[in-house]
Amino acid sequence: MDARYVELATRIGLGQSERIPKLFAMLADSTEADILLSLPADPASVAARVGRPQAEVESMLQTLFVKGLVFPSGKTDQKTFRMCRDIVQFHDATILWPDAPRAFLDLWQEFMEVEWLEVARMVNKITPRPFTRVIPVGVTVPGKTHVLAFEDVEDIINKARTIAVTNCTCRLIAHKCDKPLEACLQINRAAEYSITRGTGRGLTKEEALDLVRQSEEAGLIHVVMNKQSVDHFICNCCSCCCQTMPILIEHNVSVIEPSRFAAEVDPEACTACGTCVDRCFFGAITTDGEAPAQVVADKCMGCGLCQVTCPADAISLREVRGTDFVPEKLFG
Fold first, then answer.
1. Which is nearest to 13 in space by CA: 91, 73, 67, 75?
2. Could you give the number of structural domains in the chain?
3. Helices in 145-232 by DSSP H: which ranges?
4. Nearest to 236 by CA among 244, 228, 226
5. DSSP label at 78?
6. Which residue of 108, 223, 272, 309 lies most exposed, with the fewest beta carbons within 10 A?
7. Which residues contact 273 (CB under 8 A, 6 or more apart)?
8. What is the mean pLDDT of each run of 10 residues along the chain (332 residues)?
């Protein structure tokens, strides 16, 4: 393996990986790898560093942008470009490369199956809080529950400047279920990025709310970045393909935090039909088919999927964590 690709993998913390350098090699030829290694920089500086005409470099930077390898920054007087900063951004951006061959997507899934668990465990040890969190579905909650703006999916959408939808990167590579593929909502700058890049489709607020309802009915959980401002994404996650859910469910690695809520069953209304048991990703609801369903408190993630299709309207969400549970900023 060319040392340049190992260095690129090292820059996102995975120089020891067997597959990440190979993914970089599938994305970038040797000249493009040199350009990536010269970043962050503006096109003129890159051209000087790699010894190529600036016009050629600008064209190559655009190609690398479409592939999900570089990101423009408007924070400087002259437009600069940087590499993807970590494994999460590398995953989410490159998998949506419009011309990605199946072999590339399959190698990504091989990484997820073989290497991702240990990487997730490492990340879990060195970060103070998980990168993402659950927010409850858009269902009615009791008056005693205080739903804040950053955990109300409808409010997030209604306040967004720009909204787009992209394919779910996890289901795109894993294809382990038949859940909706075009289901990942991008908000504001992330939406503008995906539309500009050609990987996302702009949505009206009404269309986004419809997609949310369809996702809830399909049994998908809303996941956002773990901070109080939701201005990046609303993922709609399944239990089998997702980057985080299987790691939590099968291996108890806390790569995602619960919402501030928990399900609560009204034993008088519950008919013990078992619908909620089937809907729960986390094994947090039990019933023997006769006694009312019960919630296993330490397993409930507060997503509310069980409430969406309860035929007896016997389930509600109650507040179990304070309003300060959600951090003001990521890793703050």
1. 91
2. 2
3. 153-159, 169-174, 189-197, 205-217
4. 244
5. S
6. 309
7. 311, 312
8. 96 97 98 98 96 97 97 80 94 97 98 96 90 82 62 91 98 96 96 96 97 94 91 94 94 93 95 95 92 94 93 93 88 58
